[in-house]
Fold these 2 entries.
Entry 1:
Amino acid sequence: MMGADFHFRDKVQVGILGATGSVGQKLVQMLARHPWFMINALAASERSVGKKYKDCVHWLMPTLLPQELAEMEVSACQPGLPCRVVFSGLDSSVAGEIETQFAEAGYIVISNSRNHRMDPDVPLLIPEVNLSHLELIQFQQFPKGKIITNPNCSVIGLAMALKPLFDRFGLEAVHAVTMQAISGAGYPGVASLDIQDNIIPFIQSEEEKVETELLKILGKFQDGKIDPCSFKISAQCNRVPVSDGHTACVSVKLKSKATEQDLIEAWDAFSGAPEIVKLPTAPEKPLYYFHENYYPQPKLHRLIDKGMAVSIGRLRKCPLFDFKFTLLSHNTVRGAAGGAILNAEILLRQGQIFW
Amino acid sequence: MMGADFHFRDKVQVGILGATGSVGQKLVQMLARHPWFMINALAASERSVGKKYKDCVHWLMPTLLPQELAEMEVSACQPGLPCRVVFSGLDSSVAGEIETQFAEAGYIVISNSRNHRMDPDVPLLIPEVNLSHLELIQFQQFPKGKIITNPNCSVIGLAMALKPLFDRFGLEAVHAVTMQAISGAGYPGVASLDIQDNIIPFIQSEEEKVETELLKILGKFQDGKIDPCSFKISAQCNRVPVSDGHTACVSVKLKSKATEQDLIEAWDAFSGAPEIVKLPTAPEKPLYYFHENYYPQPKLHRLIDKGMAVSIGRLRKCPLFDFKFTLLSHNTVRGAAGGAILNAEILLRQGQIFW
Amino acid sequence: MMGADFHFRDKVQVGILGATGSVGQKLVQMLARHPWFMINALAASERSVGKKYKDCVHWLMPTLLPQELAEMEVSACQPGLPCRVVFSGLDSSVAGEIETQFAEAGYIVISNSRNHRMDPDVPLLIPEVNLSHLELIQFQQFPKGKIITNPNCSVIGLAMALKPLFDRFGLEAVHAVTMQAISGAGYPGVASLDIQDNIIPFIQSEEEKVETELLKILGKFQDGKIDPCSFKISAQCNRVPVSDGHTACVSVKLKSKATEQDLIEAWDAFSGAPEIVKLPTAPEKPLYYFHENYYPQPKLHRLIDKGMAVSIGRLRKCPLFDFKFTLLSHNTVRGAAGGAILNAEILLRQGQIFW
Amino acid sequence: MMGADFHFRDKVQVGILGATGSVGQKLVQMLARHPWFMINALAASERSVGKKYKDCVHWLMPTLLPQELAEMEVSACQPGLPCRVVFSGLDSSVAGEIETQFAEAGYIVISNSRNHRMDPDVPLLIPEVNLSHLELIQFQQFPKGKIITNPNCSVIGLAMALKPLFDRFGLEAVHAVTMQAISGAGYPGVASLDIQDNIIPFIQSEEEKVETELLKILGKFQDGKIDPCSFKISAQCNRVPVSDGHTACVSVKLKSKATEQDLIEAWDAFSGAPEIVKLPTAPEKPLYYFHENYYPQPKLHRLIDKGMAVSIGRLRKCPLFDFKFTLLSHNTVRGAAGGAILNAEILLRQGQIFW
């Protein structure tokens, strides 16, 4: 492992699969000035191949598309891209197969898609939460390539907020009702006629993802595999007219007794391993607990700590469970592009990108 | 009791307390063409007294203010109003005392405020749910007047959807997360800078109201008082950028076994007493169950059946409780002005307004 | 012509072309309980043909889909439908040809599409504004059928508000900046990611429609054709995050001198011909002038007079033109489905549907 | 004047008047990490004096309030504050007198309020547009203090976009319709019930400000005073449901002939004086012209170049004027706090803060 004064001679060349989609765009935006990575390939579906990126992307980011990327020619999503690492923001209808092809061709695949998340040898990685799961990639069968995934945007906040409670007090049951931002549905995604002044009380497959991914993420790596944990989860997922930031109302039943102060201390003390904290995209503090009773709020807190921290508030006793609280995480940053980039950073930092 | 061919020679003259507020305005709008009631007095706080209604109201309703009401002079909120019934949309900071004064002066007070809701001799009335509670008014100590209240806007949908489950299967526990419309906060209420593209995870005293009012509403009237029921409730209340219509994600634990089909049948079969169904403001059907998994939605369903019905959907098994589902009710109609008017209608229909 | 005690023995059977689209749905909603028309056919594109209407429509209206229409089998958009009149809410990519086929097959085509609007023998009809244009249909070359169109949703409010000014004072120039609702773009139409908390300063072909349709509408019928008027128009069209209701900021230069009071009187005096006022869908008053300086507002005024009236306010002198003012009209009611239905009503009332 | 390698030994201590208001908060946010200024005093109205800033501010910024400012005790808005420069975000009901007091007491007052904007000896300053107006402060009668103002948020974009056209082609007439963000109204400002899904076609005094401030800003400094220019302006101002960013649809009549290309070149070539470009808060490029016809959009472009640039698009011929186009500027950054800070920076850069 490298020291704190870690520097690279040259940036690592990366490609983005699904570069015109909304996760792809966020990856482009966040990687455009990344200190360690340099975008060397933008790949998308057939109808974009051969065009300049600016001519086939409906750019939705609130920053100008950098000139050199605007002019870059879009490639097909096939191995042969001039890079070592590919970030995948592909739609799940095609992600599974394409990502496998890239891994087989020797690429490190940093995926935000759901297809390989539950594969037994693929880490569903949140560096601050389950860094040990990264060991799984040694068991992957690709000659040189690897696949690493990050969780669904509705799961990331829960996983990070629950991790310190799970470690200190044990979890028996988790009940979560989410209020999810429209950007979570991609582009064009939710029609304005459907969501303006409205709530949609259903998101396809979302509740299932919460109820399964969380158990893997908090599971234990041993004997070359993940032993998922076994507490019960019930999720209800809603789409709300908020641009970015997923909010969740959470109730938890713990295994051991704890006070409200104990929980807040657990959250305040929570931090990733020392090598994580210094990563370019890592938050200074992964969890922020707010004592004001009207916090957290998506408009105010989704972007704190570069959009990579999870905000928590309103902890109080629950008449049915032990405690209830509210949490918030940025779905396209921490819950998608930023999470993927952080995963790539820890890989690079651990020297695994150079295998 | 009068027959089905029930007609009044003259309309009953009514007054509205707090007529310039948002509940007051909704009362004005709904009573302006009511077949049984005629607005004869508009009362508001000191700074409006003596002015024409149109000159002191910031009219927020999507219909034109009727000419005769626009020109009506606003009175003070003191007994002496030329009517027999007063509807109160007063702010809770003043409602308690003023409503008592009116009741003591012999008025029938139909209140939407929270102040007297938990008084032991005051019905917290939803005609389809607990009509028997109306007996309580015989025990009120006013010489002639009476006070009848309707529940908080976040409680009404829960009470109506849970009533048939409570009756058929018994309730052990109820967990509710609400997503409440901005109109529930009155005017000016929520600042646009606070709620546009945002969620506020806190509404003052709202969770307490859900957790207490529900037990009284579903309680049993006997021996001249209400015996509240005793299941456990946990509520988490959020403000969302929706104009009208409170949505709730509900989980329930029942006392006896039931299937999803049993619950849907219970909801479908639910109806008020026959004399309620024919009231001018009563819904044809109090509960609508939708089988489409993306329903109910505030924008589509808040106004069905004149805004007086509760919509339910997404019933499914819950890994932690027995079942979970989503419900929706119109907060300023069924949850405020419409609920109050329905209460007045049943009183009139039962002949109690002429005591 | 029939007398004021006009009644039909039987309702006229009508069909709706493009019944699953957003204009089609509004037509279904408004015709479902129409006193003169009965929906006898719902037609849509190939992928819906043969299915029940409820199974192929993404119902967006805030009222329940009537049961008998929900179960109706969807037909193809081809002559042979069991009705005499067809309302067309077809997309302009296919409307031109299909509408012509229906007219040739003998149907009365009441179209909301743009394709035939500028045809020399097709009335671009607003009954209160240019009823004489209806004479044009005598010159249509179809053996029995006819085509009548109503204007674009961004034009209707302008045409109605300008008509009395044009008649009394003459128009030299009109400058209009519109702020148009999302429902004007159909479904799925505008993506929520594009319009939430945003303005899009461009709507394809919209400015051209304003600048051409208005001149035909206010033109004079003589010698079997419309002589368009010739004042200058400049339009700037924007999409804004409003559900329904197009607002326009208008500046006008008149031919003759007039005071603000003169204009208001012209608007107040404006009315359609007597036989129009009594039509089921006609507004009691086509134009409402508001003296409050913060009116009109889409949320408050789009639905006045069944959504069929145009609201005007803020009339004041303009340093560059003579006057400026703001107007509002409901784009899917007066500007689409309601306008079409009113056109069909006047045809029926004039006995022309039975030719 | 100092050289390009300009550095200060110590940061200049500044105070903020009206620090709890929405402009005040934006000033706090932007000055919290300013390279040249250090906040040394936070002043607000009586009810906040003596409290910690965090306890009397309803913090609306999407970044955390820095700890040292959160704990700072709020002072009264009276001379005696430990600083040399005060930024004023005071409400106009009190700003006039308080700002005069501070100037008389020797402070440099950088004001965002409207009260002194039209004073003959007070610069209404936009550094890129009218830097020469700064000479006016030599004629101010305060012993040591000075007052400098920046324009209203609805004027700033117009002034910047029109400046190069005015200089190159001359202006005869300007017609502007604005669509203004809710943040322009301060806090609590616009009630959500008034603006959600709505447009308010009126903003108190706003049209007058556009029609007067613009003429002073583009006026010529000579003989110790500003000679305002004399073209005609007509403004129509609307409030729309957008969080930040004022959009305007503009039509212009020029004095000399020009092509669309000429205008775009004028905008592209526009830049402030060299000493302005290097100021910490100055945009790299004051004006961005977009060739995409659906740009500019508030959600995408309000924050480009730190929120300090003006975006322009949709230039085309106008049937009534010569040209029409759309512009966008960030109302609380370029149009308020950022504009004020840039004014302070140029003062400091020119050595005038040390007079």
Note: The first helix of chain B runs from residue 22 to 31.
Entry 2:
Amino acid sequence: MVRWGGVGLGLACLMAGPGMAAETKLDLMPWPASLTVSDGRLIVDAGFKVAVTGHADPRVDRAVARFAERLRRQTGYMLASPRIEDVANAGLEVHCEGPADALPSLRMDETYTLEIAPAEAKLKATTPFGVLRGLETFLQLVAWGEDGFFVPTVVIKDRPRFPWRGLLLDSGRHFMPIEVVERTLDGMAAVKMNVLHWHLTDDQGFRIESKRFPKLHEMGSDGAYYTQDQARAIIAYAADRGIRVVPEFDMPGHTTSWLVGHPELGTGPGPYELQRRWGVFEPVLDPSREEVYQFLDGFLGEMATLFPDPYLHVGGDEVEGKPWERSPEISAFKQAHGLKSNHDFEVYFITRVSKIVTGHGKKMMGWDEVLHPDLPRTTILHSWRGPKALGQAVRMGFEGLLSYGYYLDLIFSAATHYAQDPLDKETAALGEAEKARILGGEACMWSEFVSPETIDSRIWPRAAAVAERLWSPADVRDVDDMYRRLEATSRHLAYIGITHRSSYRPMLERLAGPGPLPEALVDLADIVEPLKEYNRPQTMVYTSLTPLNRLVDAARPESDVARRFSRRVDRYLAGPNATDRDALRADLQGWREIKTQLGSALEAPPLREIQPLAADVSALAEAGLEALAYLDKKQTAEAAWWERRAAILKRPERPVHALEIAVLPPIRRLMEAARGPSK
Amino acid sequence: MVRWGGVGLGLACLMAGPGMAAETKLDLMPWPASLTVSDGRLIVDAGFKVAVTGHADPRVDRAVARFAERLRRQTGYMLASPRIEDVANAGLEVHCEGPADALPSLRMDETYTLEIAPAEAKLKATTPFGVLRGLETFLQLVAWGEDGFFVPTVVIKDRPRFPWRGLLLDSGRHFMPIEVVERTLDGMAAVKMNVLHWHLTDDQGFRIESKRFPKLHEMGSDGAYYTQDQARAIIAYAADRGIRVVPEFDMPGHTTSWLVGHPELGTGPGPYELQRRWGVFEPVLDPSREEVYQFLDGFLGEMATLFPDPYLHVGGDEVEGKPWERSPEISAFKQAHGLKSNHDFEVYFITRVSKIVTGHGKKMMGWDEVLHPDLPRTTILHSWRGPKALGQAVRMGFEGLLSYGYYLDLIFSAATHYAQDPLDKETAALGEAEKARILGGEACMWSEFVSPETIDSRIWPRAAAVAERLWSPADVRDVDDMYRRLEATSRHLAYIGITHRSSYRPMLERLAGPGPLPEALVDLADIVEPLKEYNRPQTMVYTSLTPLNRLVDAARPESDVARRFSRRVDRYLAGPNATDRDALRADLQGWREIKTQLGSALEAPPLREIQPLAADVSALAEAGLEALAYLDKKQTAEAAWWERRAAILKRPERPVHALEIAVLPPIRRLMEAARGPSK
């Protein structure tokens, strides 16, 4: 997929959808298909017990044990033996009606109902997978009130809108240790995502052990790869949480790491070295050679056994055709086979790979580029290009998935992702059968700029907004309510072990050096965001070994403080009032002092690069305060003021610190309002 | 041990010891036996490599792999294949001179030398255990400077002062999951502690699986126990870090949990129920019955096989003799055997248990109460009573350990623990051979008031001060320097995965409920401490199921903010100056506003109990500001002012919130100074 061009996603302005019970203030995410709240409470105290009835399944037993542990963490409770046999004494009865396949599958039944009465709750599901979903809902309902913890009395009938709700984890570019994969799965389960798309190979690393071709991982990974035992453990860990694992082996491009150990698969003589830079590279498989298909048959056969899911993703994106054009043998081959373009040549390759995949009993998936009428209709088209391409695929009879709009590495807001629907105006004209072939989507965490320390804060909580888009009814679209629930979900995820919150201050402390963390550094970090789209790599040279330990890595993709400030500015501009004015002033005064308060702390080597940023923030806040004073006095600022101050609104194009000031747009609005209507 | 009376440890005033290279500002803890610093730096960047030479040992290989992972975490680096064969290209050469036993032992050789030059570092150790210690030292030296991360050029020759440097983890009262035990071991290794004293049984729980007597753990644990496989995994995990695991099975008291499944071992007919309260309870083994010894022979034999360390702790503390006195059979038995007191009776019991323990090839340990001349001199006396009792034991020819002064659950300051030395004025008169029998000591984390969520903040960083006392030369005693290094160590421990810092704000967020965490709540939590000694249980009824999720549980045992404020007050009172005055005023002004700023947040049910605390803090800060104003104007406060304000210094005796205001003593000093000399 084109990931280095300018991918622009407009932030659509959303109407509050119908059916949102905003008055309930429940912190559920994703919002359930149907919900009725009444005015009671079921107390959840340290003596809370769970009984399991119906169809016996060890997955349910393990889920209940995890549920108890999660309840401990959320509440700080000591629960003694929470699981009991006696339904009459249970606070929660978990009833599983029937069996399910040994592994989660595309069409697994995730339906559940959760009825909470003042004396007891009952969770009922057709299969163990529904039980998993319902237990997560229960945990999200637990709140601290008058009599300790409780859950409100509700009746929830829930099922997903789309059957495929995935997260792509890119272990290729930066290796992610097992514990990162596990906690990512825990987070996914909490927001009812059900597919881990595991991007296991790329130019920078081949991350899965191959017993058949060990040079792949031995020479292609810097020693950072998953053993097959580890992969099996992850598959089991995911399955226990109702999550499928779909591996991706990207080809014929993005294959430098394969060629380090197996140069004979490429177009040149080699030797090849692992890529340390980011981008699209020339090394590519040679589709003209029969040995390449023999190799792939062996390798994919091995992987087809290791990964039990029926689907296998072969990538197919971003092929750099130049090496093909340079080779006289390949040119001759293309001519002999009537392949006019590189695209034809890639289609030839993918069509053959498709036969290999099918031969091993799997269905193939690929990115937009692989789309071709000759492929079997069991193929899934995975679209980074957007709903139009997706619509084209399903009209051709393929099933499809959307990832356009869900690229977490673009550092867009949750609202941006939330606005993207797999079924939108581009697909509105599709027939019902065609629409049904749109299976859902996947949030994508490409890993150029994430490390094990920072990846959680890049995935979470924003991925939860995608999870809701894919699970909840289409009319659940109220952005303000989404953000309210997203904040609660963010905390909730921390109890699960996601480190997006806990890593924040330690990273700032590392930057600041010994002694107490200057709160002004936190204040600054709270209102900046990493550059969006792919602007960060334009600020300096990044390699796969560049430390990701700077302010830009600590800063959150989306500033809650800025979002709240921005909303308050809008409210104030719509109707000036003292409450908002005072709050805005207090914020601005605080930010104005950041530079002074940081003082010599900015001399610490790791912080020197943000000296201009701190100065900009303080100057911007000063301008904002002046604008607020004009507005408060109902005066229009003189032209000289604007001329003097407008410069601060033009941020350096490519600051090395790679940050933008998230409160700049609302301060700009204040300033523009103070300036009065332009002539 | 008496743990419910008033145990008072005076905070001795310490002289700065000789030999402390205060000018170096290195963050080492424990401080090494010998250290020379020079003016160079060895750069530690993402290309940093480690080579291993000398005696090959898989423990060293695993330690180097962990070292690389730790370096990643501390720095945020991506390290590609840090381990290399080529010494010439290595930033660090790890050289292990010879082998060591399969398991760490009391007399293992932990010596190492670490020489860091600008171009390379060399760590040399006699055994793999010395390598472990030296790698921790290296990691503590890593700092961020001008050219990225580096270590200073040093020559360190290091070895421990005492061979036994333990931490008691009480899994009996509150069960601690495996991950807590593992991260505790990681923390211990980081500060060079080498014995996990695992208190596995107590009145509230029997936490280890017995295959021979399964009713012990099945009926005595609420289902919360370690399987034997888990225990073996912990022993291996500890051994890999050079840490021994010494289990304790406390008897004949503290045995209610044994009697639930095996009432026949007790003095009464039963049935027995697990204790939910805290204290010393009546249920006790019956030493008059031969079956009890047969049972113990079977059980201890099983445990002697499971736990490979030569030592086995049998407790022996706090026996409630009443049930023995009530039984006519026991009275007859005592008379028949010439046992005049309950103490004699216990000695009889312990002497027989000692034979059982010895019979299984182990050496026995016990608390002060077991001391008796008839015991074999291989017995270790573990003293909670203090150096005098310890001196008595070693004079009798026993070896001994000190835990008096190292009870972390008393919530004393690090300085208090740091002041306690196993060799102090009580033992000064001992001969060299007697002194050599004082093996070291153990910090004790009794678990009445800790949960898996809070235990880290109760152990760390204070246990590091004990670790230094037991490792470093006796003259390393500078308290200010200890605190400087303790703060750095606290951060360092967070990178290892200790949750003492990361759990703080989430616990406050849970209390505060939805929305942004009020910073005033953090400000308040920052200057309060849990009640000391055993005053907390006097404020309300606590059971083993009471949630430990309140402000008192989030608050740190020792407030860094209060300590810094207190030092500044002293400096200001010694020589008034504008800098300190302004800083004190800013602090006091901030605290004065806490009540107002918290405002309606204090209406949230979980925070209601701290309403009086917030009011007290604000009033106290107000009084402090007034005192500061008098002092600043060089005026003496009028008597009426003192009369009006002194009331705030008298805190409620037993507040239900169980907190004390840690800045009260320094504010009192300000107020007293403003009042002038009393007449």
Note: Confidence is low (pLDDT under 50) at residues 1-23 of chain A.
